[in-house]
Each structure stands twice: as C-alpha cells, then as structure tokens.
Amino acid sequence: MIRVCISGLGKTGKEIAKFLLEQKDIKLVSAICSPNSNKKGKDLGEIIGKGNTGVKIESSDKIEQIVFRTKPDVVVDFSSPEAAARNAKVFSKLKVNIVIGTTGFSDFTLKRLFLLANKHRNGIVYAPNITLGVNVLMLLTNLAANLLSSYDFQITEVHHKNKKDSPSGTAKKIADEIEKGIKHSGNDDTEVQVPITAIRAGGVVGKHDVMIIGEDDKIEISHESFSRKAFALGTLRAVKFIKGKVGYYEMNDVLNLKKVLNDYIQEENKSNKKRYKNLLGKNEIKAL
Ligand SMILES: NC(=O)c1ccc[n+]([C@@H]2O[C@H](COP(=O)([O-])OP(=O)(O)OC[C@H]3O[C@@H](n4cnc5c(N)ncnc54)[C@H](OP(=O)(O)O)[C@@H]3O)[C@@H](O)[C@H]2O)c1
Q1: Is the CB of 109 within 6 Å of ligand 1?
Q2: Whole-model pTM?
Q3: By three-state DSSP, how is residue 150 classified?
Q4: I need a labelling partner for 252 at 20 to 30 A (CA). Which of 27, 35, 132, 169 fits?
Q5: Which of 97-101, 190-194, 266-270 has the lowest mean pLDDT?
C-alpha cells in the first residue's frame, strides 16, 4: 500500500485525486490547498463530487504537521510553479518523495529541484509530460530527428485559455528531444532552435503537433489528451516508481521507453533470423 498526499486541487489535481481514491494499492492520506483557499477544512470528497473520504483538505502552511500526522510515502504536486518549488523544499527536508507534475519552472528552479533530491536523499520525479502518449511522441520525434536531421522541425501546442505557462513544458521537452536527435545524427552543421507556436483557446486539455518538413515530403506526429484521466494514469506509474527511491528522475526513467525500444529491436532481429533459417533446410544452409 502506498500512502499518497496530493498538493494542488485544481482541474488536474482533482481528477488525479478521484482516480487515486479508486486504486486498491493506494491510500490517499492527505490533501493540500493554498493558505487562502476556500477548500481549506472541507472533506476532499466534497470538492471532487464523491462521498465522505475522511481526508480533510489542509493548507500548505501546515506541511510539517500534515506530514508528521499522515506519513505519506509520496506527494503528488499539481499546483503552481511558485508553490511547488517552495513546498518541494519542505517535503525534501522531511525526506518525503515527490512527483511534480506542475510546469512553468525557470531553469534555475529546475536545477534547485535536482539539487534538493541529491542533498536530502529523497526521491523526486519531475514530470512536465506525465502521459504515456506524449512520452511515446517524444521518443518518435527523437528518432525522426536522428533519421531526418536535414528536415525542418516545427512544434505547435494548444491548451485551454487558463493555462498559465506558454509554451508548455512538454513542448519545450519535445524541442530538446529533437535537438538531441539531430546532434546524435552527427549533423552539427547548424545550431538547431526548434520553433514553438503556442495557442491558448477554449477548453482544450492538451494537444502537441510536430511537423517534420523536407524538400519533397512531410511527416506529422500528433498527440492529444481527450481527458485529464491520461494525467492520472501517468501519475500512478510515477508514484509506484518513486516509492522508496532516492534521487532525481524524469518520466523517461519511469517509463523506460528506450529499453522497451531496444528490447523490441533485439527481438525483431532474432525473429528475422529464425524466419530466414526456417525458409531453408539444413542441406540448403550447408550448400551456401
Ligand atoms: N505534467 C503534466 O502532464 C501536466 C498536466 C496537466 C497540468 N499540468 C500542470 O499542473 C499545474 C496545475 O494545473 P491545473 O490545470 O490543475 O491548474 P489549476 O486548475 O489552476 O490548479 C492549480 C491549483 O493549485 C492550487 N494551489 C495554489 N497554491 C498552492 C499551494 N501553496 N499549495 C497547494 N496548492 C496550491 C490552487 O488552488 P487553491 O488556491 O484553491 O489551493 C489551484 O487550484 C500547472 O502547472 C499545469 O501546467 C501538468
């Protein structure tokens, strides 16, 4: 059983709380809001449309007491970059592990998150891209950049109009993957800077499109989240991964997609060899 505390009960945090409450191997032990929030003192069930959960929502200025009393193994944070950075420091000092889904950190703050985990020897997953689908998209664009390094890459992302950071953390990470892929290809003729177009409109949960355009053809890779349940599924994997671990990790560590790809290629090679072997009899092979 993993004891989880959820910090940040906005659009995403509420969906994740609902989902975690349904998991048999997870016990939601505490829920944290901002100091002036009108959620303070309410039962978690009241704000997520469930019955009484027995989890009272408490304010982030009481983190120490909340941790001592409810003893979470992992905190899940979907709040704001300022609150997440501040709270991560306190959780780390208390040696509680954290999954940070919040986005919009400066490079300086990201470096501090990395240092926090090393200094306090707790575990942190920083996951600006928590869905499995988006991580597969990143792997595919990394491969495409390696194979098509002379092509032009463009990213467009669309999110609901209340999303605060722009461009999204995920779009920036996709750009990093493309830049890494081009560098690995050995094409270092040009300094790569992948353009990102960010659109904030309506209620779009999250959409990322990568266009890969050459002189004669074009590839498009797209990912769209239809609901926030995709974020909850990714969070559950990250929570299970970080329980009891020490150090700083990202979603590619949680999902280990490069190993999956590597194993797949090895299996493919093996079965190709077998197929050719079966095409020829022993004597035919000897005669070769
Ligand atoms: N990683 C991913 O794949 C992914 C997916 C979706 C969203 N996100 C990110 O997750 C974050 C939240 O997104 P959202 O759409 O849920 O935003 P949101 O609806 O604005 O929710 C943020 C919540 O944080 C709470 N908060 C503010 N200060 C706090 C504090 N000190 N302690 C605890 N809670 C605090 C606020 O509520 P109260 O003031 O009432 O407490 C607010 O409801 C954003 O950075 C977003 O970009 C990431």
Answers
A1: no
A2: 0.88
A3: coil
A4: 27
A5: 190-194
